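note to self: dont lose this again. the chain is below, predicted strucutre after it. 599 aa total, dont forget to put it in the shared folder this time
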Amino acid sequence: MSAFGIEYEAEGIEFEFTPAKGTAGELAATLNEETVVAKIDIANAKGRSTFVREALELYPDAFTISELDFRRVLNDLAVYVNDEFKIRASKAEDDSEADDEVEDVEVDEEAAEALIEAPDVLERYVETMAQIRKVYGDRAQMQVVALGALSSQLEPLSDGMPLGTNVMLIGEAGRGKNYVSDAIALGMPGPFIYEFESASAKSFFYEADANPDRFRYTWVYPNEAEATDALVETLRPMLSKAKAVHKTVDTDADGANAFRGLTIEGPLTVTIPTVRNKLDNQLQSRMLVIELEEFEDRVPRHSAKVSESLLLSRATEDHAGTLALWRAALNKLAAVRRVGIATHHEKFRLETNKISHGARLWRNFLSLMLTNAWLEQRNRETITLETGEQAVIVSSEDYRVAYEIFSTACKRSVVELSDTHRKILDAVYELQKTEKKGAFRGAGFSYRKIGDKAGCSYETVRKQKAFLVQSVGLLREFEHGGLGLVKDADPSWWQENELLEGFPTPAEVEKWWAEGDTNRVDKVDTHDNKDEKPIDKPNTVSTEGADKGVDMSTQTSPTLVDSETLIGKPNPNGHHEVSTLSTPFESGGDLDYEYSEDD
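---
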């Protein structure tokens, strides 16, 4: 059984028990800001008594509970732990039976291969899952979530930096955040996903200690942001370095203090559904922010889907075969995890200083591109690197896909305000213009009046108030609860600007990479390549025999041109084209995605 944390509170004491083997594990008890930690068999009465005496002796001023009451609380904890074991064992048995049912589905390998041989893998996968799950709309948001989930399968850079996309999925309660994410998870292989509803601060470390590969190439999917509140300090290094280390001191079997280091190995990506506008700032800056916006007749349309699901004709629908095919197909793609670009242009970057976390945003954006190439690897050029590893080369089409999805679904990644926020601000601005100054002064406007003017419910105004007042500082709250704009506020402060300012256009990238393809080393499908340099290494200056096996001159260029005319200069006779030759990358090496923590 993998490690997990069991939390319990009684008599003001906060307990956290992390099983290691059976009922033996690590117990931490905290009272009045003092914590006692020890290894203990929670089912052993003698061990519990020893723990009680240790706590009372070490911190008598903090643990003011009587010894008898303390022992009684620990006994209750032991009962609770035993019940928790039974519940988890039952759930594991149910999950095992479900897995067996999936494994029992016979998979046609040719059919699975056909799913990834045909183009537009992302679009087809998302549409299939949406149809099975009966998702109305939100296709661009589903595509971002899918790319984020599957980007966990990408091999990190040589320095260990991960290349995955991490997503913060915003929406009001009942908008369908989990519904969208659950749909994407349907067709993914079980080992690709780690779902949970709550977790203690160090639970990931103990689980990784029990199973070191648990979080490698894994999409972490909590039910809500609240499930990750205790995990922020764990997730931040995981998203930046694909690794997190926790150093602690506990007691060994002899009761002596012993140092212990716990390590989580990634790479992993995370998607956090939430009703919040803000997470921890350092965590949120490592994520793409997408929002499930309100749309006309959302409730009627969503409720119609609920009604349709009750049709008896739906009761016999069986999607097990389709889901098994997609799981098998995605497992096939995981045989190759290295994805990259073959050529670099100096303008292939984010050309703006308006986004403080721009380097992180650019990396997440490029991850969408890389993951689409990974999904399309059967339709992309692949090479063998110097190490013998297979790698997929990104095409300009992958950049176009990422660009279009980002422009549709990721506005909140660039600007903090949503369309709903702008409607509220516009409504307050118009109310302040039209209302008599005397009526407005010192009172502001009610949520209901603002909502009526903005075309949304007063509840929406109430929920967004804290963000607009405290986070972005565009509204102020008056003494009696009314809202108004801050002094000198003007609609230009919140107007929607060009979303993709500074991003290269797909046409530019296609042109740059087409030009770059003439300058990169050809080492794909050549019969004699022992003298050629790998694509990820710069060339040396061409000398006699260095380009053995590769014809670097143009079809019309005679042999004497290469030996008598300088490279890049026309033949003196004026009748032939200029000779060409592969040259090193303009940057002098590989494209480095690394950024500083200050970015």
